[in-house]
Design a protein that fits this description.
By secondary structure, this protein is α/β, with parallel strands linked by helices. It has helices spanning 8-12, 18-22, 27-34, 39-43, 60-69, 87-95, 108-112, 151-164, 179-188, 198-207; strands spanning 77-81, 100-105, 122-124, 137-143, 165-174, 213-217. It has a single domain (8-217), classed as Rossmann fold, CATH 3.40.50.150. Strands 3-2-1-4-5-6 form a 6-stranded parallel β-sheet. Helix 7 (108-112) links the parallel strand 2 and strand 3. Helix 5 packs across helix 6 (87-95). The longest helix has 14 residues, at 151-164. The two termini are 25 Å apart.
Length: 220
């Protein structure tokens, strides 16, 4: 189990008004809407989530880094748990022609509006109950998803990722290293159910038998 950062450059490219969001009179209502993971979360007003989720190629560099790190080749099989609109899965197919990709998500809207080239490889499903056999994938990834689960489902999801992976896996969640980052996370988030510092996440992974790699994004 190792800490690897694939995502920070993308995350830091977005500017966030933490105080503006937490001071919003309707933040609680926005969180309720966001947790439906429908149009408003993906393509509605920024206060509900992404504020418009369009393919722009930004995930290509992440795919390239992961391909190199995990020695992925044509014939390798990847699962993305919480794939959303599957932009990263699409990039894997461009970086390594012949690679096999699968994605699972609880957002019907995201699945219906996913990258067309890989849409037929996606399905509805929960991270805590993956509908795949043991050791089915060369690499299982989950980016910015598992922190949305309450701890009892979080444990199941981590163990499910471990179960369906032949060898490699990578989980990235939101976390914090100091008081400022913790407050910024609380101010900004809309869907988080599990808030843990880095050392707490590392402890949980070990307790639950997770042997894959992991990373974090921080709200600095």
């Amino acid at each position: 189990m190792a800490y690897i950062d694939f995502i920070s450059d993308l995350h830091k490219a977005t500017k966030r008004d933490y105080i503006g969001r937490v001071n919003s009179a309707d933040k609680a209502e926005c969180a309720i809407v966001a947790k439906q993971y429908g149009y408003d979360y993906w393509d509605g007003d920024r206060k509900y989530g992404y504020g418009g989720y369009r393919y722009d190629g930004r995930w290509r560099s992440v795919a390239e880094k992961m391909v190199k790190q995990y020695n992925l080749t044509a014939g390798s099989c990847i699962l993305d748990v919480g794939c959303g609109m599957a932009h990263l899965l699409y990039e894997f197919t461009q970086v390594v022609p012949g690679i096999s990709v699968k994605g699972i998500d609880i957002s019907h809207y995201a699945l219906e509006h996913a990258k067309e080239e890989v849409r037929d490889q996606l399905q509805y499903g929960e991270a805590q109950n993956l509908p795949f056999e043991d050791s089915s994938f060369d690499l299982v990834i989950s980016l910015a998803t598992l922190h949305n689960l309450k701890v009892y489902d979080l444990k199941k999801a981590v163990q499910e990722i471990e179960r369906v992976s032949k060898k490699d896996s990578y989980i990235m969640v939101e976390s914090y290293r100091n008081d400022k980052e913790e407050m910024n996370l609380l101010y900004w988030q809309l869907t988080c159910a599990s808030y843990y510092a880095v050392d707490e996440w590392e402890w949980l992974y070990k307790e639950w038998g997770y042997t894959g790699d992991y990373g974090f994004i921080f709200f600095e």
